[in-house]
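Notebook B, p. 112. Complex prediction, attempt 2.
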Amino acid sequence: MGKVIITTGNYSAAYAAKAAKVDVVAAYPITPQTSIIEKISEFIEKGEMKAEYIRVESEHSAMAACIGASVAGARTFTATSAHGLALMHEMLHWAAATRAPVVMAVVNRAMGPPWNIWSDHVDSLSQRDTGWMQFYVESNQEIFDTIIQAYRVAEDPEVKMPAMICSDAFILSHTSQPLEILSEEEVEDFLPPYEPPFDITDVGHPVTHGNIVWPEPRGESPVGYMEFRYLMHQGLLNAKRKIKEIAKEFEKKFGRNHGDLIEKYKVDDADVAIVSMGALAAQAKYVVDLMREEGYRVGAIKLRVFRPFPDDEIREIAKGLKALVVADRNISYGHKGISATEIESALYSLEKRPLVLNFIMGIGGRDVKPEDQRKMIETVFNIIETGQLTKEAEWYGLLR
Amino acid sequence: MTILGLPEEEYIMSGNASCPGCGATLALRHVLKALGKRTVLVIPACCTAVIQGLYPRSGIGVPVLNMAFEATGAAASGVVAALKARGKDDITVVGWAGDGGTADIGIQALSGAAERRTDFIYICYDNEAYMNTGIQRSGATPYGALTTTTPVLGKKEHKKDMPMIMAAHKIPYVATATSGYPKDLYEKVKRAKELKGEGTRYLHILSPCPPGWRYDSKLTVKISKLAVETGLWILYEIDHGKFKLSGPSKRLLDPSKRKPVEEYLKLQGRFRGLSDEDIREIQRWVDENWKNIEKMMETE
């Protein structure tokens, strides 16, 4: 049992990086991520954390430095938000294709203009196809625990892919909650020191990392570029199994389970389930409890991992449901909510599919109260009665 | 013993994909002789990224981390930090990038690394345009040069003074060199290596490029030397703030000792569009550069 303190989501991420004994941190400040890297600076300057901290001049450089450090054998950490994450985009592809198990805390924030520093998931969801694992968490404890778990998954020889742990701006980042800080000894037992699969500084065995590969096998290369990409895909598919195993192992050791790819809440006998990501997943459970008292057969699903996508898990639950409410704190302009798109895609192979109603809500930090989630759920119960389903995503609370 | 007294070890292997007469690879050959085996190269998108050869082989005898175009300074910072975290202190980390990757897209990461006193050597091999993508103008392209993005009129601006930008970072060592004077280059790389532990060391190597500069590939060394002899390219080092001319540039402070710029320009097809006025402008620019050097030496 570690020490329990009251602290913010951002400090929880900093404590996790410390507990994970990262070797190299490279980061650049952006609201609302700043207090993560300020706390880490304090740990390092006070000598409480033994790591090299590169105070880079941009997020692009933060990720490039993490990649350089990772291939030189270091466990690496960084953190960012919104525009910082967007600036990193190229290097996110580079990190994943390098198979560098970098772990990054992302504090989800809206993209400008107009400037807005509040929660919105478009920043990280826009990085969907970079090869990064994406975890969306609902509490400060989950931030801490997931960062520890993510290193295990990312560094697993069958995975070797980077991971981002996404938490909502201010709702978690600057809000204090109880946090059990696992001791470095406890964590080390669960997360042994990083053993790099290869080391670019091994001058006795010089290799070149990342030189040209043709589309087809050619010359002495038995494979082409496409095979390298398939291996990345395989890594993320393997991560599905690993995330489950490691969540179980974590629960056994530390007594906490935040779900694995998803978290199910009272869905077994439900007609309707509400799907949420991040902090609103916690509030959804509260709403489910209230509505259950009134006799609604409703449950909640937390989409904890967005990549790799839990399509089997979603299908399994959906078989027993009449309808899904998918609440997206994001929008893919000209289409619909991003998680709704993914969920509908997963459901397509089912013979009998539940209805899916997609709500766009909470954009740029707009408040979503329990009664709002309740209204979304009620709407779906009415649709089940009337059979009148709108195909378009519904912008919840939009002023017209 | 070799003629120049340089080590016989070769780190540029046969099978590399250099163009005939490549000034950059000639320079890298001597750079690696000075650096030796315990070296890690970080190479962004540039000619050398192709020259190193195809997976799974490498034409370079030291480890190479290939990196995105603008990220050399940052990725090298990461390698340096990891080595420090792991207590390995006998490896030299070297960024090896072209002029576009240095003076244009990579200048931010390089400036950041230098300001942080990152313990590495950064070498810009300057072939004065985006050669790998097909001779497009860069910030290091000289006045008047025809490139594929200045195809008719030629470049209207002078070359960005990258070594002096780096000197303004007050780093321990800045030096210029060119492919045609390998011994001078070798000594400067040796000095940069020797200063390990003191922060960022920067070398800028003018590297003639036969296909990009439009000249016969046998002329690489001659053109490299003419760049120095005309005073267009000045060989110097700034060691802990102390400026010193080196090699043949030492005797060129007197303008009468410098060959006219035409001798350099006329051998290269990229300058075929120059008017007499353009040539006068280039000569004026050269003379002005030397006046600045003179001022710097007076204040020493």
